[in-house]
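Entry 14. Two folds queued back to back today. First construct below, sequence then structure tokens.
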Amino acid sequence: MRAAIVLALAALVPLASAQPAPPATAAVAARMRVAAEQLLAALPEPAREKVARPFDDRDRVDWHYTPRSRNGVALKELDRKGRDAVHALLREALSAAGYRKVVNIIELELVLRELETFGLMRDPERYHLTVYGTPSRTAAWGWRFEGHHLSLNFTLAGDRMVVDTPSFLGANPATVPRGAAAGLRVLAAEEDEARALLALLADAQRRMAVFDTRTYGDIVTTNAAKVDPPQPAGLAAADMTEAQRAQLVKLIDVYARTFEPALAEARMARVREGGIENVRFGWAGSTERGRPHYYRVQGPLFLIEYDASPNDGNHIHTVWRDFTGDFGRDLLRLHYARAGGTVHRH
């Protein structure tokens, strides 16, 4: 099944000379290519062999957010030069705030070392980078940075376009209870802006928004390679006031602005493409702080899930999925069709 899902786009031909203006993410694509080339050049040959996989490798869509073995090269296997190159690539993809989130998520492994009975199993150096295909000006390639509570996936159409979904960020603990990092809330805005929207709703609206009294134990879509739209649930933006819709957009923007500005705007453009009025906000579980809770923001083209079920709501999972664009599926095909290029399959 997964083999049928993978897009074998590694042999994309150069774009025709008469073509529309490149999307805003083109400049990001070019910067990512340069950063990836510099990264590969910085790695010794054994690490370079581990980091590289074919673009059409099924591993590209086999993503995870739990502690486990992974392909690619781990931070612990790299010297200072190699680690700096990995972080330089991350900075090309993320906003300053997003980069801090990622670094803090990694450093929460050190917090778990202190808090858990078997905390020595936690390792902030078990985060892996994988490059799929060869960084190219014209052909498709991609890369992933992944470890516990983190999976960032990028697919590129040469120097012309970047697709950045699916993306997963988690935090355990959501609020650090004690120690040197006491009070740290890595994903604070993801919770607070949703609660701010819930607080703006009138009683009748809240009854529509809160669609279940229980959570699901995790994000519903888990780490599926491809997701279809869940059954719509919650309150539609069309039934919100102007102030409530503005807060809904602010919440969505929290997730988008984890990424660098052009990528963030591309996400918001996908939201608007499906129509803001068609976006729904749904809540499940307790509405009290410190209790298990869940919400989703769903439009015709995208889904945001947030789950804080474990540890009495002090363990967060979040994900952004694009129903047709994850891993560059239909978005890349559409882009090359519009630009006059041809997609070749193996």
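Second construct, same run, same settings:
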Amino acid sequence: MEQYVYKNHKKLRYGYTTGSCAAAAAKAAAFMLLSGQDVPEVELMTPGGVRLRLKVLNRTRTSEESGCAVRKDGGDDPDVTNGTLICASVRRTREPGIRIDGGKGVGRVTKPGLDQPVGEAAINHVPRQMIRENLEAVCRELGYEGGLEAVISVPEGEALAAKTFNPRLGILGGISILGTTGIVEPMSEQALIDTIRVEIRQKLADGMDYLLIVPGNYGIDFLEEYGHGLDLEDAVKCSNFVGEALDAAVEYGAKGVLLVGHIGKFVKLAGGIMNTHSHNADARMELLAVHAALEGAPRELLQQIMDCVTTDDALKYLKEAGYLEAVMGRLMEKMEFYVNARAQQNLELGVITFSKVYGVLGQTALTEDLVRKIGDYRLRLTREQ
């Protein structure tokens, strides 16, 4: 694609999704099968309104089945599927209508709560619709009234899946065929947010009414030491998107959420900053300093805090001066206030924040109750197994 967007002062090229590749390959294969003609290129209108013209590779044709492939181009978006072949084979069937399935390298859904039911190929509903509509259009154009079956495969899919969230989500054997607009926006945050939403929905479908949410590996490592019945398998990783994770928990009907995170990210929650990426906002030292000031800390200490690069350095100064406990108490109150404001009082919410140097720094009022409820879920699951 030769469409671009400017992000962080860089010119980045758009790409197209695995769903677009699958639909284009299936359309080309169907046309070859029903017309007997070779199709070196195929045109595809995406749901996002962008028209693509794509090269068709690995073309094969018999009287009963045709196969084609389209190479995924993610543009300037870092994606493990970039450059891989998305293949489609199409054959005639006796039964009318369009049937869509996944073959080698396309994952199979094994847990509830995902876009497709358990047992189905991990081809999401928008790509399925794209495939179906394009095959129906080919049938109309060529006057074919019988049925077609399209099988989507990805030769490298099983190996690529190990680099994705699929094994964690219970999608086994390959990658997912994805995309809602058909177009990949480079450096888009939406793809990660969508993954977080899927994992939250899946946890709730598994009966986990109280969610355990951590930003990333620091939180996971901490849980290994923290114990108290919390299991790493139960944690949803939200990256920097704390606010979006809370939004999804409310939307999908969770009863409560326990947030566990390093002070370097979670101190920002005390300022109402729900996207904790440094590109979005920092304010770590400012928040630590203002609450130290409200506790009567001297100017010299405040300046030391403001000059710090890491929160652990700032905590060292607070601890040495005897202000750490009081400052953390104030910060936990503000964290509790802002996460409840984001959830609009629709969730039972708890927050644990920690430092790799100083361990647990603080927790909010409902934390122990939420730890127990999340632990009860794990115990119930263990008994059922």
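Quick look at the second one. The first strand starts at residue 4 and ends at 7. The chain has two domains: 4-184, 190-384.
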